[in-house]
Amino acid sequence: MADSLLLWDIDGTLVYMDRAGERSLLIAIRDLYQRDLGLHLPVDLKGRTDTSICRDLLIWLGVPVTPAEEARFRSAYLALLPTTLPMVRPFVHPGIRAVLDAVHAHPEIHQALLTGNLREGARLKLSHLDLWRYFEFGAFADDSHIRDELGPFALRRAQEKLGIDFPPERVFIIGDTPHDVACGKAIGAKTIAVATGSFSVEQLAALNPTHVFKDFSETQALLKVIL
Asked: Is the entire prediction scored with pTM above 0.85?
């Protein structure tokens, strides 16, 4: 069997983080810019990169968007995550641990991350739920603020880490939003959409991904698609 590469999204796909990231951003905005935005951010978060979210928030706040200010905002956010995570109730979505274990047992299937999280944010979130150990590498918001540009970064790291040039038909982008499906299509990969986030099976199916799942509680169903 030819080697396959699974590229996993995090929030809404692997885990539910109980708004830990949003809470950290709200506190960072209060601490840095003395603005209390209440319980929710004024920009869309679903499927977007942390870098683009931070940039949009600075624009909304009327703060000049400079590389130094963006870096300061991101650093404040990351510094707050370790404090925020113990205050919320995140969980791993149904079937995920079993799927990750099953994939890990297949030497021909490799798994990595393709996420809108900053790398350090991804590490903090997944380490909190004991999932970080499953992933050798990934593509993150540090690489680009544009989600559709992350695929090539993941493929280059796969070649560096594994010595394999994966053809598009052996690459699977797995996520819960339209952005994940679009990101996979941007590199000609297969796309697996899962309705464990904010979008229903019907909404995801309308985007014509390769496969759609309600969740990953049936391990063999997902393995059958990959194998």
From this structure: yes
Q: How confident is the model at residue 135 (pLDDT cuts 50, 70, 90)?
A: very high
Q: What is the pLDDT of residues 136-173, one digit of tens each?
A: 899 999 999 999 999 999 999 999 999 999 999 999 99
- Mean pLDDT confidence for 93-98: 97
* Cα separations in angstroms, 218 against 38, 141, 150: 39, 30, 28
- Cα 20 to Cα 1: distance, rounded to the nearest angstrom: 40
Q: Which element (helix H / strand E) includes 222?
A: helix 219-226
Reduced 3-state DSSP string for 61-98: HCCCCCHHHHHHHHHHHHHHHHHHHHHCCCEECCCHHH
Give the number of other Cβ atoms within 10 Å of residue 127's Cβ.
13
- Chain segment 172-201, per-residue pLDDT in tens: 999 999 999 999 999 999 999 999 999 999
Residue type, 159: Q
Q: Residues 49, 22, 6, CA angle at the centre, nearest 5°? A: 40
How far from each other are the two terminal CA atoms of the chain, in whole angstroms?
8
HSE value, Cβ hemisphere, 13 Å, CA-based, for 196: 24
Under 8 Å CB-to-CB from 19, ≥6 apart: which residues? 88
List the 138-139 sheet strands across, edge first.
Answer: 138-139, 109-114, 4-8, 171-175, 190-194, 211-213
| CA 219 from centroid of its chain's CA atoms | 20
